[in-house]
Amino acid sequence: MDAARDFRIAIADDHPVIRHAVINALSSMPGYIVDGAARSGNELLQVLSEGNWDLIITDLTMGTARSDIDGLALIARLRKRHPDIPVVVFTMLANDDVLIRVSRSGVAGIVDKREGVDEFRIAAHEVMQHRRPYFSANIRARLHRRPEGNDKASGKPVLTKKEMDVIRLFAAGASLTEIARQVNRSISTVATQKSTAMKKLELATNADLVKYSQLNGLI
Q1: How big is the CA angle at 137 (ends 55 and 31), to the nearest 5 degrees?
Q2: Dihedral angle at the C-alpha atoms of 155, 160, 164, 170, nearest 10 degrees?
């Protein structure tokens, strides 16, 4: 990559205040231009189809329309369509299992939104100038605390990846039919995985499932 030219950045977040704060922080750095801004995963994919990009910075959980792409699915699609463009994720995700999955998905970095806009400048500098992955202090502490990515030692229920996918999509508003189509499973299989996950989590109602997902940063 030509170090003499500006790095072109695309950003996605559904909250205008956060989106503008990140854009302003990065635009203040010499050699960095934020040329694309999106409010959803689908918008981000459209932005990326227009021109060449050097860095993608995206929120993981954007509370947009039901038809929008899921956060982890978005990362997977970005890595498949744009394997040479580093992706930095920023999030307030509370669920460590999902956080670990994100860290292992091929992203170049993860930043906790609560740590301030300076973290975005540091992340962009480390990733683009030094070609090093960057994880903010809060994220590093959580990943270090959970190196194996499970809760067995603490006695907390451990959901499978497929169960996690189902409850996250259901809590985000998708029906079992829509989930089955999106994850390419039968409706009965999806219903069983949802039921199993709720039993593991000791959740009695769909409202409990939605509340759990909100509290744990799944939606």
Answers
A1: 30
A2: -110
In angstroms, the CA 119 to CA 139 distance is 12
CA separation for the pair 143, 135 (Å, rounded): 9
Pair 42, 17: CB distance under 8 Å: no
CA distances from 144 to 57, 59, 100 (A): 23, 22, 10
Look up residue 83 and give its amino acid.
P
Which residue is listed with tokens 């959901």?
159
Residue 170: strand, helix, or coil: helix
Q: Which tokens in the block code for residue 201?
A: 């989590």
Instruction: Annotate 166-177 with b (16+ C-beta within 10 A) or e (fewer).
Output: bbbbbbbebebe
Do 139 and 217 contact (CB within 8 A), yes or no?
no
List, for residues 13-31, the tens digit of each pLDDT value: 999 999 999 999 999 999 9
DSSP single-letter state for residue 53: -
User: One-letter amino acid identity for 147?
Assistant: P
All structural domains of the chain, each given as residue ranges with its CATH number in brackets, are 7-145 (3.40.50.2300), 161-215 (1.10.10.10)
What pLDDT score was predicted for residue 19?
A: 93
pTM of the model: 0.70
Q: Rounded CA gap, 140 and 28, in Å?
A: 26
